[in-house]
Amino acid sequence: MTDIPRINDDALVERLRRAASAHDPVPPSVLEAGRRAYALGASGLVLADLVFDSLDDNALVGLRGDGIRQLTFATGDLTIDVDLEGDGGRVFGQTTDTEIRAVELQTPSTTLSLDVDGLGRFYGDCPSGRLCRLRILRPTGAPVVTEWFDL
After folding, report:
1. What's the pTM value of the predicted model, to 2 decimals?
2. Is residue 121 part of a domain?
């Protein structure tokens, strides 16, 4: 009977890591997404997930007229409804929290403050064709940010 050579687990994992790295490397975009996700969690922000996008729902096409896109984001205790007018138009929205302090429209390079009323509604101008997210500041708790979306 032939004895099978023994290799310790750490050495085996390292050999597998090198083989995967050489033959199926992780794409740079995946690494960057991972870094951003880690930074988001480490920053104390709460992420609001995109739960509805009218561009993805054919049943609603044309329901509210041309040029209006509807988005809904949600966390455990907050819902954010957003209407985006066509290119370079306006952003209108409302949250289920009527006591929000501020809403910011963030792009990778700028932050725009949106007007907020006492009912949790917000509005303002939006840059066209830009990658954006909303940042909601509440009286208590961590700030809430939406997923990134294209205007």
Report:
1. 0.69
2. yes
